[in-house]
Amino acid sequence: SRARSLGSVFAAEWLGFDDVGIRRRQDPIDNPWCTETLMEAMRSESALFFYSLIRDDQPIQRLVDARYTYLNEELARHYGIRGIKGSKMRPVRLKTQKRGGILTHASVLSVTAFPDRTSPVIRGHWVLDRLLGTPPPDPPPDVSEISDVVLERDDLSFRQKVQLHSQNPRCSACHQEMDPIGFSLENYDNFGRYRTRRFGEAIDADGALPNGHVFSGASGLREVIISERKQDLTRQVARKMLTYALGRQLEYFDEAAVREIIESTRNDGNRFQPLVKAIVRSYPFMFKQSNQGELQK
To answer: How many helices (H) and strands (E) in the chain?
Structure first.
């Protein structure tokens, strides 16, 4: 049970999917499909999935490119996946590129959207900040995601509205990083259901990074992260798990231990169990302070 808490507590807090059903939900009167059992299954999918990565000693990159997940009948129906019966959550091998890894979990997709619509900006920021540990600078205090004037323009698609906003010189630098990532997840609505059209218009899920790398959709985003940002992903997982193990935020003097943990993990194939072992053998963990300030070994 303590090991399972790495999914239900640690991953839930880090990735934010513990908000599903609490801060993120749909009005059940207008959306009768959004039941308490569905939201529980959404949280369980992500928690069970993360725990399985550690239990089965998967490579850290499987967090974003795994070809399996955990479903029950209600969540599978939400995803449009057939052949799953009953309320019990179980591992399911994925046969479609529409799903795979934490990026396409309904729990994450719902907590990175507004209640009534998706947000490429929030989703792009979530990937850079929560998943990769490379957050863009905070926006100016008087700048919203999209102005009401732009939102009300019927002659523009949703993507064009976001792009028009991002042309603001005060905003363009950050949006060049966030928007392509967020747009690649636009095929998923504000509660994680897959779609190909938005208000009758075909969805454009293409993106191009500042370095010129072009990709499309969630599958393209997965490939970009693995090919170009895998070290950022590994470092972020290591830092977050060390923070959880210590019960405090990391300080500048922890950076040497972080580097040693990452190097040890790299030597053991960038897998989860060597990462956990490196953390519990690290100096900050071996000599962490108790609540009374006494050293414990």
So the answer is: 15, 6
Residue closest to 234 by CA, chosen among 268, 183, 208: 268
Q: What is the pLDDT of residues 212-244, one digit of tens each?
A: 888 999 999 999 999 999 999 999 999 999 999
Half-sphere exposure of 265 (CA within 13 A, CB side): 32
3-state secondary structure of 69: strand
Which residue, among 128, 132, 97, 101, has the nearest Cα to 230 in the 3D structure? 132
Can you tell me which residue has the tokens 């089965």? 56
| Inter-axis angle of helices 272-280 and 36-55, nearest 10 | 80
Whether the predicted pLDDT of 161 surpasses 80: no
pLDDT digits (tens, 9 = 90+) for 185-197: 999 999 999 999 9
- Count of CB atoms situated within 10 Å of the CB of 62: 20
Q: State pTM to two decimals.
A: 0.88
- Averaged pLDDT, 105-117: 95
User: In this structure, are residues 109 and 221 in contact, taking their beta carbons and an 8 Å threshold?
Assistant: no
